[in-house]
Amino acid sequence: MTNDVLLRMEHISKSFPGVKALDDVELTVKAGTVHALMGENGAGKSTLMKCLFSVYHKDEGHIYLEGKEVDFKDSKEALEHGVAMVHQELNQALKRNVMDNMWLGRYPKVDKFPLFTSEKKMYDATKKIFDELGVNVDPRTIMSEMPVSQRQMVEIAKAVSYNSKVIVFDEPTSSLTEVEVEHLFKIINDLKAKGCGIIYISHKMDEILRISDEVTIMRDGRYITTKEAKDLTTGEIIRLMVGRELTNVYPPKDNVVGEPYLEVKDLSAEYSKLRDVSFVANRGEVLGIAGLDSSGRTELLENIFGIATRRSGEIYLDGKLCKNRNARESIKNGFAMLTEERRATGIFGIRDIQDNTCISSLDRYLKGILLNDKKMEEVTQWGIDSLKTKTPSQKTQIRSLSGGNQQKVIISRWLLTEPDVLLLDEPTRGIDVGAKYEIYELILKLAKDNKTVLVVSSEMPELLGICDRILVMSGGRLAGEVDARNTTQEEIMTLAAKYA
Amino acid sequence: MSEKKKIKLNKKIISDFLLNNAMFIIIGVVIVYVAIKRPTFLGTASIINIINLTAAKLPIALGVAGCIVLAGTDISAGRVVGLTAVVTASLLTNVSKIWPSLTQALPIPLVLLIVLAIGALIGFVNGFAVAEFSLHPYIVTLSTQLITYGLILIYMGLGTNNGMTLSGMIDPYKALITGTLFKVGSVVVPRYVLYAVIFLAIMWVIWNKTVFGKNMFAVGSNKTAAEVSGVNVKMTIIGVFIMAGIMYAFTGFIDAARVGSATAATGLNYEADAISACVIGGVSFVGGTGKISGVIIGVLLLQVIFTGLNFLSVNPNMLYIIKGLIILVACAIDMRKYLTKK
Amino acid sequence: MSNKENNNINETTVKDEAEASSFKQFRGLYSKVNISVKTLNIIIVVASLAIVICILIGLKDRGYFIEFNTMGGSYIEPQKLMYGDEISVEEPSREGYRFEKWALDEGCKITADLDSLRVDGPFTLYACWIEE
What we know:
By secondary structure, chain A is of the alpha/beta class. Chain A folds into two domains: 5-242, P-loop containing nucleotide triphosphate hydrolases (Rossmann fold); 260-496, P-loop containing nucleotide triphosphate hydrolases (Rossmann fold, 3-Layer(aba) Sandwich). Chain A is 33% helix and 26% strand. Chain C is an alpha+beta fold. Chain C contains two helices and four strands; from the N terminus they run ααββββ. Chain C has helices at 14-20, 37-60; strands spanning 64-69, 79-81, 97-103, 123-131. Chains B and C meet through helix 2, helix 13 and helix 14 of B and helix 2 of C.
């Protein structure tokens, strides 16, 4: 059975300053089929979809819908031409009700008075669609009063209501219960029968294999291959997704792992998915933390450091209980934390290098009750020299430095607090290869100085290159622990999908 | 670079310069104009007068500046000055109508401590509300402004005073504030100029040489990063507002003697001038940046403009409009400095 | 997923990064402000001109009004005087009272010495009476 080609994207390229997000990518979706799009974080799936919807404007390439070339100028035009998307991060007006959200921008008008919206028409139309899809929601309910799973159903119904030919589902089951997932699959199959083309983006292997007809795999912004789902296994998919050469060079690993130092017991967070995480980290060890986005890696570090609300669990350093109720206490106990987004929560943009370096250790530079400028200048210079930070002077505003150098300044800030445990969240994100190497060297040096370093990273080669052991987080839980020297990326990916 | 590009670049440099310094250009123009029409504007008496007025308005500006560095504001400043001024005037007189049983003025140091406590208390209330409940400083200080005004009105109605102007303060107090510091020719420079200089120096030290000062800049620049870096954000915010309240109290304490009287209207809109001065002087609303030198320059320049307009007897009704436009220009220039090009 | 997309950015200057993402560098009171440099330039120029115009308008209608509150006595018209002028005004009259002096406050506690007093802004003089 051959289906007609509904959507064809070819030779799509998109660059941002410094990075090629999409490099000659293609995608073909046939009518009446479900086409899965797979790849790691950063593979380019979302970027490709955003190009389809003209949220981003592609640099090169062509898009053909039902054989005709299209070039939408924005997502509204895409919608009008029958291309719809159910977003992962729901774009909904939470204070309005279901009907308003469904018809945002295209309110049915009262026949006699075209300026007024017809609530009756809205209600009827909404009810009709919901009944067709078997969705059991009162169109007048306020969005914020519904659980996330129902909101997601509304989002799906909205996409369907546009009578779209091509519907993209981006991680649609992340908040759905099992029953709702079945319901969704039924809806998808109905859409298939009607001749729609479905693009399905998900990390959940078993779902992909169940629901899709074809699978396209992307890696590092490039198109790898398209295969029929019946010809694939989970292992195959993973291999195609991650199979990259280890091109990064890492410093020689010659740190010696010592005795247990940090013990985390049954750590659970109050406001995130983090549950019952327990592990031990040793002196002189580099402990990696892997996992998908929103698997709880950052939340784990934040809860250890005390900047997120803990529900239960204990932290022991060398057998001594550390309450770590807030950042100040944690610093006193010998912890340091490099946050994930340095621009949002790390740097004091408008202040200079010296202020950014000394801020966490100011008490050490007091002469009487006043600060000693000379001492602060000295330690800042030490930070610049030992980390090889490139800056015109100590008085330069930190925001004019490149990301890598900003990161180095923040690292030197923490080093000045003389910590025993360092929690690094994506320490090499947004940093060029040269600076990355320098940071790897630094991490290993810290380990050789008998410190305990925890590193969260989305780059598996990195973790495999510098860590001794790797914890794998999944869905807020600790899915497993592997020995970095003996494991493979596939093993980690499998663990990462365990509770996803 | 090609000729065309060079010209374009030069044009941009010039226009940037003109726009960023528009405030100073306007002030320069006003000074020149007034000097021509009324040469006495540049005379000794006039300059000393400007210095005196600048010194009187400096402490309140120094207080508000801290709040602005925190990326906030404090619009209760003027009324706190008013409250402390009327309390001072009512307690440092031998014929107090507000406290009829008080037949002799209280000791000066005691009164000073009382008003400092009042200022610190109001500052604490402001700071606590902002720090603990993350309420916007504008909302908090707006309500303290109104409440303080209410307190002033009540206070002025106590005893047998019935809201009338307070005056008749004791001589030792008046001498302390307005007594001669030194003379330039025949023109007197009063003592409160010295006090303003002392406050200036103390604030400079606090801003630049203390852990508290560094913390203040960190919180203003990036509150979350400050928290993660171990700064006690709550205490810093409360501290800044208390410090501001104390500066307002000093201003009120000085004002009562300087003007010679205090009414319920004392302090009205003082914060508008103070905040404008800070923005002109480079203490930006983006937070986390600012210099003490900028504050005094801002106060001085504003004072020069308005003294100049005063000399020319410009219709007082226009002054409010002009002040509003000045704030607008100052903010636009400020935003232009920190704007990210999209 | 979308903001992790730029995971493998190779380093360039911060300016480019800022253009690539839509992260707001504005903070503090300006954090929600969305205004272009062009608009600001226009505001600065227009407002500056407005200031100059207002000063000129204010100069056309120069002068400070000195009001005379006779506290129950005969009406005295306000005078429009310039900065630095002396004040000269006739004594008001009031049935059953003798005029004592002018004061700067209603309570007659701050005497206004018309010989040394010079105009430096708008204010009101209050008449003080002694019962006869």
